[in-house]
Every structure is written in C-alpha cells, then in structure tokens.
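Example A, followed by Example B.
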Amino acid sequence: MTTNTQNNNESKKARILIVDDEQDTRDIFKRQLEEDYYIDTAESAFVAVEKIKNNDYHIALTDLVMPGEDGLELLKTIKKNWPQIAVMVISGKASIEMAVEAMKLGADEFIEKPVEDLDLLKLMIEKILKIKWQTEEIKRLRSILDHEFDRAHIVGNSLAIQQRLEKIKRIAPLDTTILITGETGVGKELFAELIYKNSNRKNKKFVAVNCGSLPENLLESALFGHKKGSFTSAIRDKIGYFQEADGGTLFLDEITETSPEFQVKLLRALEKGVIRQVGGENDISVDVRIIASTNKDLEEEIINGKLRDDLYYRLNVINIHIPPLRERMEDIKLLTKTFVTEFCKKYNKPDLKISDAVFSILSSNEWKGNIRELRNAIEHAVALANHDTILSEDLPSSINITHKQNDRGYTRNYDNLQFSTAKDIFEKTYIESLMNKCQGDVTKASKISDIKRQNLYEKFKKYDLDPNSFRITK
C-alpha cells in the first residue's frame, strides 16, 4: 500500500530535467528539488534530447555554456520540437549577448550562477508551473467554447473570463433563473445577453430593464403593464416588460434597487408565472426566463432589510460573479486594442498605434469603473489623437493624474490581489518608470536599479516592453 501511494504521489509531481556538464551542480539542484518534484539529470545537450524523446517533462533547467552543443542550441531544439516544455537557462560563464539571445529564443527564465537563493529558484519554478497550468486550462476551456458557442461581445483571454464563459455555455440552455453579480461597469448586461444568445429562447425577445432608473411608482406599471384609467396618466391599456418578453428573456438590472413591497409582487410573478396589471382584475400567465443582476453586497442588503431573503433565494439559483478589471489585468491590452479599433471606425480615423507609455498607464490604473471606464478613456484618447500614435496626453486628465500620483509614491489598492499579481504590477510599473527616466538607456537603467542587463531584457520580454520605445527622438 505504501509503495502504491508513493508511486501515485510521484506521478503527480512536476517533472524537471536538469542539464549541466558539472556533476556538482546537477547533484546540488537534485538534492534541493527532488522532495517537491520528480528530477532527472543529463550531462550534455545530446543526452538531454534523448531523454526528452522518451519522457515527458514540464521544465528543462539547462546551463548555457557546455562542451559540444551549448544551451542555446538545446533551447532552440526544445522550443522547435517540444514547445510545451518550459526552459530555464542558467549560467555563470555566459556573455550578456548569450543571455539576451536566450530570452529572445523563448527562455522562460534566466538564472545566474552561483544560485545562492534556492528558495527563489523554487518560487521561479512554481511560477512557471502556474503559468503553464493556466495556459493549458485556458486552451482546454477555449476548445470547449469553440464548439457551437457564440461569445458575442465578451472580450478577454484571462482564465477568470474563460471559466465564466465555460460555465455560461453549460447553463445557458437550462432555462434556470440566474443572478449575475459584479461591480459597476464589468459588463453584467453583456453576460446576460450572452446567456440569452446561447439559450433555447434566442429566437424570442431579450428585454433589459434597469430597475434603478425607474421611479418606484412607475416600476410596477413598467414591468406588469396597466389598464386604462388605473392612474391619472393611464390613458390607454399598456402591456409591461413581462408580457413583452413572453417566450424570451427578461433582464432585471440592479434588482436590489426595488422596494421590499414591490419585491413581494415580483416574487409572486417568479414563483407562479403570472402577473397582474396595475388596475387589472385577472392574472395573466407569462413564460419568461429571468436573469437579474446587482452591484451590491447581497448579504449586507438582506441584513439592512433592502432585499427580501426569499426573493434572493428565488433569484440566486445559479450565480455568476464577474470579476473586476483589476483582478484580470491581463485583459487590458486586448480590451484596449478592441476599443481603439471600434472608435477609429466611429471617428473615421486611420488605425492608431498605442504607445508603451499608454499601456503602462492603463495597466497601473485601478479602474474603479471597470470596463466601462476603460472604454470611455479609449474613446477620449482616439477622439483627441492628432497623430498616428495614441500618447499619454490623449488620455483623460483624471487617469493621467492618478498615474502621476502613483509615480510620486502613492500606492494603489492591492488588497484584493494575489501576491504574485501585485508583485508583477509593481515590477512592470517600476521598470517602465525606470526606462522613462533613463530614456531607453538599458545600461544606465541597469546601474541605477542594480539589475543586471540580461535580467532587464528578461523583464522586457516578460512584460512585452520594447526598450527602444522609451527613447526620445529629436
């Protein structure tokens, strides 16, 4: 039993191949890593390739300078034939040019010898493994979504968005009531429309109602309809949104803005499938799928008496929470490019490029208004741009002010971020600020930051930064 358990645990460990011509280096790494990973070793690039042909590895950790075929050639071979394997290059003898070339060829990390902080090495390995898992999970979810699924106008490649889309694909045809939660501006109505477009009701109407925009005395009439003469301005019979959406989908946005008294009537309509018009005497049957949304904390709303708990339980059959933009910052670049394309067409402008400085500002902003705020900022920038590239001065002043405050030492709110995400945001912002200060001079930036040139180039690649874009042209 012990042997079987041990074998199962071994099979779950990530497999790492250590390639180095020095026996001592291979032994040190193996001793430090074998408790957490399955470790295999090779004394040359040739032996490494033969082992890769016959085994599955997650990471190859290779020296750059070795007799015979060096680490660069091994890196090329792995990336060409086994691109799924992450490659970490390590060397104390390699030139700066070799290190830079390794990063250009696709090395995932670069480490200098001697490796004194082995805990840091483990952290780097775990980060690579996490990225690999996320990438594989995104590919798996995309393969599911690519099969007869209309993702409409939802833009985002982050794992968080792919997971929501996969969930929507599963529940869209089920005709259940759905509650969508999330901050203002995350696109709750877009996700409601996505559910509708992939449902069995897509050939009927989709009716969206913002409950917070209607006065309380008109909300009941708007949703249920009214009879002529039921109140002063009721000069004719009028059907409500429930009847308008009959057979289709009714989206009740900001459902928590309704009064508890009205919520009783709404609950009856949901449970019984019948409504009664204002001033009417008879019940009217309706067949409507309800999707509701709110940007409020529902438990707090219930405690404060603003939301009936029985209505909450009736609406919250399936919950879809849309994460704020600050929790999926990797989607900002794709969203920005999408909005630039949209507004270039609207304002009849040629396709505009976006400077790295602008991406830097966009990536460091908190986006309290989420995607809606980002979209408005890009429309502002495209409308004002009078050259072929969107520059920082084209952005709304409020965003530039926030960015400048951060540069002066103000801190953004990292409370809701994982440490690795917060660290990446800080590091990218720091590198961009440093390169702006040094006007693209990598050597100067290296001296100021005490970061070796090859490590700076590694960070340029990691954060998709072009050092030349920081140079000031005269």
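Example B, a separate protein, is given below in the same form.
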Amino acid sequence: MLDIAGLTLSAEEAAVLGEPEVGGLILFSRNYESPEQLRALMAQIRAVRPDLLVAVDQEGGRVQRMRTGFTRLPPMAVLGRRWQQHPEAALAASRELGWLMASELRAFDIDISFAPVLDLDWGRSGVIGNRAFAAEAQAVSQLAAAFMAGMHEAGMAATGKHFPGHGWVEADSHLDIPVDERALEQVAAADLQPFAQLIAQGLDAIMPAHVIYSAIDAAPAGFSDYWLRQQLRGRLGFDGVIFSDDLTMEGASVAGTFPQRCDRALAAGCDMVLVCNRPAAAREVLAHLRRADYPASPRLGRMRARAADISPERLAAARTLAGRLCEEAA
C-alpha cells in the first residue's frame, strides 16, 4: 500500500497503481480539497484498478484527513468520559459515530478507514492521547466494539491499532524508536485486552505498533514473529488481515533498509506493508517485491467495502450527534 502526491492521479502514478504488487492506496489530507474533487480522483483510481484497496485515516479528532464537506468527528476520548456516567448512551453514540464515519467514506467508494484505535490512554503518550477511547481496558473494549459494529453496518471492515498497545510509551514512533519495558504479564493484563475482545467479536484487521517491548522480544511488534504469529495468530486466534504500520516511520528503522523492512514485516506475518510519504522508498520496495515474488495474501479481499443502505434521516441525526460531541470535547 502506497500513496500519491496530490489532488489528481498523474500518468506515472497510474502506471504504478497498475503494478500487480500494489494492492492498496492510502489517501492523505493533501489528496483532498472538496467532495467533487475526491469523486473525480476516485473515478481515476477505479478506472486504473477497480480492485484496489483504498484506505484513509479518518479516526476523528486530530486524525481526520478529510474535513471540508465531511462531518467533523470528535476525538474518541469524549466517548470514554461519557461512558463513565452513561455507559449505554456512550455505546450508542460510539456505534453511530462508527457508522457515520464509514457511511461518509463509502459514498466516495473508499474501502476502509484505519480505525478504531484500541490503545489505552495511560496519560503518557502524546501521539495517542485523546485518540484512545479511555484509560480502562473494559471501556476501550466496549466502546471500540460498538464503533466497529457501526462500521460493519455501513459496509466497512474495521482495523484495530496499534497491537499490542502503543499507549504506555512516551516516544512517538513516527519520529523515534519507542521502547516499552513492561513484562508480558502487565501488557497482557491491560493493553492486550481490547484486541482480544474485538477479535472475539469479528475484528477484520490489525495494525501492529512500531514499538519494542524489550522485556518480551527484541524486535518491534510489526517485525516480530513472537507478537504476530505466536501471540496474535496463535494465542488470540486472529485470522484477519495484518497491515504493517508505515515502514518509513522512525520506529521501523531498526529493521534495516526499506526492502529489509518489507521482508521482515512479511516474514513476521504481515499481509500487506505500507510505504507512505517517501515515493523513492515505495519504488524501491516495489522493485524488490517484483524480484521476491511474494504471493498475494488471500485475506486482503475481505477488506473491500460492501454495499449498505445509508438512510438520509440517520445521517442527519448522526451528524447532529457528532456536532454535540465535538462541542463537549472542546
């Protein structure tokens, strides 16, 4: 999965998207100007690759790539605060936000948003912070499950991130190599719980963290056979898609060159690797994949969006709810 530079698809980018080793495209804020422009861009993309998996980060709060013409979504922490006093109302609101987010993206033929965040807010991580639903594993599990149910209702698969939990480390894996020094028992007792709960309820995909859990394994989770095969596939019984986090992030640098990062992520159990915001690195990985001849993962087809009925009345009510929650979060 790679990205493109701007608001339209260039001839060179169209040729790259036509390569069989490319299975996905992730959109960023620079790729969005207006609903009309997005519709035209998606028509260009689908003309080249109708089967391409198109993704975006549209969590809400700080992480919402498409804003003008889309409903402003609150940070998920507002639902955690509501859950403390009115759990049933918070769960209903979470489901509606998941449905709203997915419904608006599905109107433009975008397959997935990489959501929900399953990290716990330990009050330590600035890069996670209010992206997390709550500090308590039970609250995160219930609220995220409701959000996922709303996404599913709108025809969108859900991706839980960042396995096995990014909330404890202070360093930002975009810029640094975070190390979580806790023992497995501590991680399993808290951070792993939302992942286990959502897997049992049909979570479609997971994105591992570029975090080293030094007391457990020397490799960051996204390059770790222990975390992806033994824990995620084995102990937790997960058979969904594993997306690497972006291989250009500093947290991935310990895995070597970009081709080496690709090999290590795929060998550890990832189904698809992301290479974003570094076109030269994406071309390098693409050339490497041509030579390496990795088979495409049969799981990836499950992530394509499904048709769903979108009620205008429900959309209006969900947008009103989102507005109220944004005011509450301010």
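On Example B: The CA atoms of residues 71 and 320 lie 9 Å apart.
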